[in-house]
Specification:
The structure is a single chain. The protein has 478 residues and is an alpha/beta fold. The chain folds into 4 domains: 81 residues, no CATH class; 94 residues, Immunoglobulin-like (Sandwich), CATH 2.60.40.10; 55 residues, no CATH class; 205 residues, Rossmann fold (3-Layer(aba) Sandwich), CATH 3.40.50.1820. Helix content is 36%, strand content 24%. The strands form 3 sheets. Strands 9-10-12-11-13-14-15-16 form an 8-stranded mixed sheet, sandwiched between helices. β7 and β8 form a beta hairpin. The longest helix has 19 residues. It is globular and about 70 Å long. The two termini are 38 Å apart. 50% of the residues are buried.
Length: 478
């Protein structure tokens, strides 16, 4: 069972991620990401237009609460948005269970250490009270035999999860709140288990502190992974569920390959990778989707996804419709890269394309660009600087500058925003500016949709737009 991968994108879409730890309820971007992805998953399968509209109004309240830095209100509003999609409102017992969160003391653990601590506590206040007979069950990978089954009489409830006989790997932590046989709430998150963890991380840290023998992708990536893995062992949660066991093995293998002057990453390793890509004078952290290597010589399109302000390379992969863009690229066999952008300053997108195409069979004549909010403005500026490098560009929920627009004549642009989107006016101004310089820029507005959900609602149309704009496939090299 694949561990869930989700992100704090709701938090980081709007302000710097460091603000996410200040709430009195000890809410963090990890917990909000879990809640947001569960909501986005339900939203994707909902068909009742009235419920969806009511749900998105609650989501808009969550946006407003975030600007007030009231993270308890954000979590409460996301929960309200989710409840609006249900056929009937939950009862008081279920309402109380939905308000709780399970926080782990670490997410990368050596099972031979015996156990890992956890705390069950409120994510936000509710008028509902703790029901009589409430029981917490915690299991790995959906096992029918929980590792913990304990009555909950008061909050916070602190316990230990026994792991001594647990198998290593990237596991799914399932926790359930029930009264008798009646399940009130069931949620999942990640827990990675690896043997000899301390010694392996010490050795990895020592190797990454040494001056690299070369400036390869592997040499640049290993220190970043070492830092991510170290953070997974601390109580403060990382921003997304990471496959820590796999990343540790990858870091060890890539350092060994780098020492021999060999390549670890390439089309022979499909799936998702966290990388630091060396550019000419800098480097950029990215998350990359590599499609299955069915034909190593067939060059494929590349989608570059630019996230909103305060976000990271995980945003498009884990949120915006519970990572809907990943499935859309997988279904087409396309590469997907999400670079980490900064609010001030940015990477060179053409250099990134060239660096990736030097390692993977990416067609430089079929590069597609999509951005949200701040990323929409960055996508516009990027396309204006190097229009010949991008086949088509989609910008959602944000505006930006295109300068004189030289070279944009006839270029296809998709500009979209929600009817309730605070970025609507900027996006509409951008579309008009593109038309003025001769670009083929179409406007797309989504009824009742606000700023956050615009990506989820627009992505199917964006990919239809991408497919129409793509030139024929490049010939297969011999």
């Amino acid at each position: 069972m694949k561990p869930p991968l989700m992100h704090h994108s709701f938090v980081t879409a709007f302000v710097c991620i460091t603000l996410a730890t200040s709430a009195p309820a000890q809410l963090d971007r990890y917990e909000l990401g879990l809640r947001l992805r569960a909501f986005e998953t339900r939203l994707a399968t909902s068909t009742d237009k009235e419920r969806i509209a009511a749900s998105l109004r609650e989501l808009d309240r969550a946006v407003q609460a975030f600007f007030r830095l009231d993270l308890q209100a954000v979590a409460r509003a996301i929960d309200a948005a989710d409840r609006r999609l249900l056929p009937a409102p939950p009862d008081a017992e279920t309402t109380f269970a939905r308000s709780l969160q399970l926080a782990m003391s670490a997410r990368l653990v050596n099972p031979h250490a015996g156990s890992v601590g956890f705390t069950l506590r409120a994510a936000f206040a509710t008028e509902a009270t703790c029901p009589e007979g409430l029981v917490l069950d915690v299991a790995l990978d959906g096992s029918a035999a929980p590792l913990v089954s304990a009555p909950v009489r008061a909050l916070p409830f602190i316990g230990e999860l026994p792991l001594r006989d647990a198998a290593v790997g990237d596991r799914v932590l399932m926790w359930t709140l029930r009264v008798g046989d009646r399940v009130l709430q069931q949620r999942s998150q990640g827990l990675s288990l690896a043997n000899d963890l301390a010694s392996r991380l010490d050795e990895l840290a020592g190797l990454t502190e040494e001056k690299p023998a070369n400036d390869s992708l592997e040499a640049a990536t290993a220190p970043m992974l070492a830092h991510m893995l170290s953070a997974m062992m601390k109580p403060r949660p990382e921003e997304t569920v990471l496959p820590g066991s796999r990343l540790l093995a990858d870091a060890e293998a890539m350092l060994a390959a780098s020492a021999k002057g060999e390549m670890f990453f390439g089309p022979q390793r499909p799936g998702e990778h966290w990388l630091r890509v060396p550019l000419r004078r800098s480097s950029v952290a990215v998350r990359l989707l590599v499609p299955p290597d069915t034909n190593a010589n067939a060059k494929r399109p590349l989608v570059i996804a630019m996230h909103g302000a305060g976000g990271s390379e995980n945003m498009f992969f884990d949120s915006y419709g519970a990572g809907a863009i990943v499935e859309l690229c997988q279904a087409r066999g396309w590469y997907l890269v999400a670079p980490r952008s900064e609010l001030f300053g940015n990477y060179d997108a053409p250099q990134l394309i060239d660096a990736l195409a030097a390692r993977w069979p990416i067609d430089p004549e079929r590069v597609l660009l999509v951005g949200h909010s701040m990323g929409a403005g960055q996508a516009a500026a990027t396309a204006a600087r190097a229009p010949s490098r991008f086949t088509a560009v989609a910008m959602l929920g944000g505006g930006g500058s295109i300068g004189k627009g030289i070279g944009l004549q006839g270029r296809p642009f998709f500009v979209g925003a929600g009817e309730r989107d605070f970025g609507r006016s900027g996006a509409l101004a951008l579309q008009k500016a593109l038309v003025k310089v001769g670009a083929k820029a179409t406007w797309h507005e989504y009824t009742d949709v606000e700023h956050l959900a615009i990506v989820q609602f627009a992505l199917p149309d964006v990919f239809a737009f991408f497919e129409q704009a793509l030139p024929p496939k490049a010939p297969v090299s011999k």
